[in-house]
Each structure stands twice: as structure tokens, then as C-alpha cells.
Amino acid sequence: MDFRILGPVEARRDGDWIALSGSKVRTVLAAMLLAHGRVVSDSRLGALLWGWDPPVTASAQIYTYMSRLRKLLGDEVEIVRRQPGYVLRAPGARIDVVEFERLGRLGRQALRERRHADAQALLTEALGWWRGPALSNVTEFLLEAELPQLEEARMLALENRIEADLALGMHEQVTAELTGLVAEHPVRERLRAQLMTALYRCGRQADALQTYYEGRKVPVDQLGVGPGEALGATYQAVLVGELGLRGAGAARGRSDVPAMLPAAEGGVVGRPAELSLLTARLATWTNRPRCLLVTGMAGVGKTALAVRAAEESSGHFPDGQLFVELCHPDGTPKDAGEVLVRLLRALGEPGLDGNFPRACDRDELVRLYRARTSGKRLLVVLDDAVGDLQVAPLLPASPQAAVLITSRTRLARVAGADTVVLAPLDNDESWRCWRRPARSG
């Protein structure tokens, strides 16, 4: 069985298309496919079919649509009544959105590990599952509820694929595509920065600067705000000539660049402002190491946000991305020496067997760590810190480095301007998190 929602909602069995008549039946099928095997409640189905004003016969009509789908899809698909709604099970079925998400995850992982050719191939295959605007033949209510996040996932995959293209030296091939994308999405600053990079590498520095000047006006005219710091950092890099390939081809084969970021299962929900702030700060170079803090109560999503921000910012840190958890599974804090051994091994320090170091070794470990990180563009993610004393020995000795910390408490060494406080999600956002679970922290 083959299901498709990244375009018109369609189903196919043994190569033959199944006649799904009416937008209501297609809406019910798409809603259950998007639930990824979880129950879709009657109330949600009613909202997706009729909006805020479902008919008094809504339950009976939903039952009718389910019966019709069972007959159309046959024995390969099981649609089960499970209070408070229905669940669809289709073992062995191929679902385009599932394939897109799987390939996208693998592509992002390859990009983090600087396997740019693999990333390009995986992300190109992921984007190949799109056949046009997703959910193009369902109700307006399902479209409004689901299309924005699907489109955002597509754009992120496209931006990541272009990042891999640029790393592979394909700036001439992507310039025309980027020109069209920037015209279509003028407020997406990552695309504009990528176009500036491609133009600069094509020897068109003046055009790259003109692209920046045009982009500087767009957020002011459309949103009433100035351009983000990430776009400004690209502008500065054009001015000082820092957008060359810098041996990107050689970097693909490097084994000394750590890539420790965990795979981010699911997505960051309800945090666009916080994510934008973190990525902008990570893209801004200063004359001292940047130290950013994400804080909030347990389970609010600190780790998921930090990993996503680190993932999107990895291109600014060509010397690697380090990630370490600062607490054991039972919640007790790890000794800084234990953490330093893990970080040093990732950085290629010889002679460390991974045994827990004696207290008298800690000063030597700090010295080695600072020597290893000196002058490097590293991003260090310290997850679940308990306090300043635990963090202090883990700060790299490089003004080009950045440290992203998650903690349930505020840290004195992190300035207020560099602290992001996460409040609990509201009911709608919590519902989305439940539907698409993400790593929490």
C-alpha cells in the first residue's frame, strides 16, 4: 500500500490508484496518516472536517467516512475504533511524509558530520517525495492546521540541501535556484545569506552586497523590524572576504572534526522567537567566547531547543560541535573531570582511556582542554548544568568558540541578554508536542 499526502492526498495498491471520492474522505485519511499511528479523536476529526461548527450528526458522518475508507483500502489497512476516536494501522505501507521525515533526519545528521555528499543525496531524495503543495485536495480546516508545519519542514530540508551544495562547491549551480527562492520567500534570511555566499563565490561581490541591502529593507517594510544578526554576519564576511570555500572538499574527509550533536527526534514546537534569537547570537562573532543559556522548568523543552539551534548553526563552527550531558540518569551531577575526559577524547587528545580521573588530575585536564580548544571555531553544548562551578572548567579557550548551556537555574556567568527563559507551552502547543514528541530538557 502506498499513501501520499505531499501533494494531492492519494492511495495506491499494487500500482493501481484507489478512487478516494470527496474532500471529506481524503481529509479523514490524511488526518490519520499524519497521526503516525496514534488515535485521532472524534473532536479533532470534527474540527478538521467542519471547523468550529460541526453538525449534530458529526459522529455518524465520521463513522460513515471510516466505513467507506475500510472498503476502499481493503484488508491491508486496519481502521480501529479506539476511544476517543480512531486509529489507522498499515504495516508495511509506504507513506511519503514518513519517508520524507526519515530521509530529512539522516540528511541533517550527515550535514552535522560534514558528510556533505551524503547529506546532499539524502536531502535531495527527501525533497523528491514532494509532488506539489501538500494536502491540496482536503478541507480548508485540515490545510490550515497542518500545512504550515509541513511547508516549514520542506523549507528547512531545502535550506540544508543548499548548505550541502555550497559546501561541495556547487555555488554556480544553485545561484539561479536561490535567486528564485529569495524572491518567493523574502523574509527567510538563511536563504538570502546562502544567495550572498553563492554570488560571492561566483566573483559577484557587488551583487552579494546588493542582495544584503535589499534584504535589509524587507523586514522593516513587512514586519517593522531590522535584519537579523545572522544576515549581518554574512554581510561582514562578504566585506572581509571570509566566504571562500576554505578547503570544503578536504573537510569532507576530515576525521578530527567532532560532531557530537544528538539526532533531534521530532521538532521544536512553539519556540520560533527563541530559536531565531539563539541562532542569531550563535552567528555573531565577538572578541570573546559567546556563552548562551536556555533555562526553564523540567520538561519544558530546553534540550530540544538547544539541539535544534546548534544544528542550524553548525555551519558557523567548522572545527566541530561538542555535546555532553552534565547529569547522570538519576539526576546527580557529573564531575567536571569525567566530562573533560569525554570532551578531550572527542577532540582527539591521545592517551585518555576514559577512566574516571583522580581529583588531582583535573587541573591537567583543564589545561589540555584549553590547549585543544585554543583558536578553534567550536560550538559546545552543555546540557542540564547544575551551576557555575560545574560549567567553569568546560569553557573553551577561544574567542571564536560558543557555548550553549541548558539548566533549570540561571547562571551568574551568563549575562541576562544571553539568557533565554522558556515558559511552559500553551494548550495548543502542548497538543502539537504530544502529537509529535520531541526531546525534552
Uncertain residue segments: 247-255, 353-360, 433-440
DSSP strand (E) fraction? 5-15%
Query: So how many helices?
Result: 17
Biggest sheet features:
5 strands, parallel
User: What is the overall shape?
Assistant: globular
Based on helices, strands and strand pairing, what is the structural class?
alpha/beta
What's the helix-strand series?
EEEHEHHEEEHHHHHHHHHEHEHHEHEEH
Counting DSSP E segments of at least 2 residues, the number of strands comes to: 12
**Average pLDDT reading:** 84
Helical content stands at 40-55%
Radius of gyration: 24 Å
Strand order of the largest sheet: 9-10-11-8-12
Oligomer: single chain
N→C terminal distance: 38 Å
Write up what this structure looks like.
It is a single chain. The chain has about 450 residues and is of the alpha/beta class. Helix content is about 50%, strand content about 10%. The chain is built from 17 helices and twelve strands. The protein has helices spanning about 25-35, 40-50, 60-75, 95-110, 115-125, 140-165, 170-185, 190-200, 205-225, 230-240, 250, 270-280, 300-310, 335-345, 360-375, 390, 425-435; strands at about 1-5, 10-15, 15, 40, 80, 85-90, 95, 290-295, 320-325, 380-385, 400-405, 420. A five-stranded parallel β-sheet has the order 9-10-11-8-12, with helices on both faces. Strands 3-2-1-7 form a four-stranded mixed β-sheet. Strands 4-6-5 form a three-stranded antiparallel β-sheet. A hairpin with a 2-residue loop joins strand 5 and strand 6 (about 85-90). Helix 9 (about 205-225) packs antiparallel against helix 10. Mean pLDDT is about 85; it is low at about 245-255, about 355-360 and about 435-440.
